[in-house]
Write a structure and sequence with these properties.
Oligomer: single chain
Mean pLDDT: 84
Radius of gyration: 23 Å
Largest sheet: none
CATH superfamily: MFS general substrate transporter like domains
CATH class: Mainly Alpha
Number of helices: 24
Shape: globular
Structural class: mainly alpha
Number of strands: 0
Number of domains: 1
CATH topology: Growth Hormone, Chain: A
Strand content: under 5%
CATH architecture: Up-down Bundle
Order of helices and strands: HHHHHHHHHHHHHHHHHHHHHHHH
Amino acid sequence: MAKDQEKQQWPGALTPNVDSSDSSSRNIANDLLAREAEKKQVKEETGKRELQEEDCENELGFAFSEKKKWWILTVVFLVQTSMNFNTSLYSNGLVGISEEFNVSEQAARVGAAIYLITYAFGCELWAPWSEELGRKPILQLSLFLTNLWNLPVVLAPNFGSLLVGRALGGLSTAGGSVTLGMIADLYEADRQQYAVAYIVFSSVGGSVLGPIVGGFVEILAPGDAWKWCIWIQLIFGGAVQLLHLFTVPETRTTVMMNQIAKQRRKNGQEVYGPDEIESFWQRFTVKELLYTWMRPFRMFLTEPIVLSLSLLSGFSDALIFVQIQSLSLVYKQWNFNSWQIGLAFTGFGVGYILAWLIFIPSFSHNQKRREKYPDDEHIQYESRMYLLLWLAPMLPIGLLIFAFASAGPPLHWIGPVIATAIIGVANYAIYMATIDYMICATSNIPLSSCLRFQ
């Protein structure tokens, strides 16, 4: 009995009912309750009746057919792939950029670094707006600006202009905090794992797709290759933006309820959506905006589990981008040309697929356990990271193998490829497990606050 109670009070867990020592989750929940109380007061003063989810549940994202849900997820898959594709393809143009602007290749790498740094802050800036204004307009605006800022890069008159374009492109990228948020719009937390696994694959896969495509682009002369690296980003980004615009509906529940309420008022039913009770300026005060944008940093500093998972995920991703910059040095020892070096990155892709296949059987097993023990918080939340305990050690194992196998001839070149596949398994597992846990365990907090550090 004592053991069962211990499980239900899993220490340090970021779950809705946990009495955390730092009480950050409780403070956020209290702030949200206070916000609801203010809204209730406004309703009483205005006499407006708010439309509830149960009044229109058959019209919300949760009620979409499976076919429609998976089409939406497939478009989101392509959107997320294009976003991460932009982070890595640039590196295949370093030689051309170096020659074009008379800078060293090391200096040219600043364009890759600045994009990743501003990308992190871009997620921070875009995510809260997707919670309030809807996923579709925010994602469309983000894609438009990201595509637009490719132009000052490819047409840059000097290196400084190129860096500005890259920085603005990263800042304009909404990232997984919006695309993964759409999963929560379509699925209940207990049914989300297959969808999360699908979108996570697009995120990790997009990063290694860049060097694979870039390897073939580098067959061109350096002066042309670097420009085509940027043009391809623009073409890919423009195509997925149009696909998203014409085939994906709004999925954010509160925004859909606003639209449903407007339609019902036209039919004579006097109801209002969740965001129609108060005016825009009542909802978006300076204090409210600052608080919303500071919330993830607050969680990062006060929630040990958020800090730990974010550092683990960040370290794993950093290794991938370091290898994108340096893997060419390894394979040149075997006299690989540019497209052969690009294909060597398929090792990561094989690792991602293997990890995906490893996770899939665990989803139905975990779901049965959650249904059997609905009151056990460890089974409901932390069990989602069980596989991570076994797969995360593959990261240092893969790195050790890579270190010994990358010494060059007479060793065979397949050694580093196998090592990158092992690293890929760990990278996917870290991303998959932490995202799945964070979406579920913080379902009482706006999702964008949880995902922006992942």
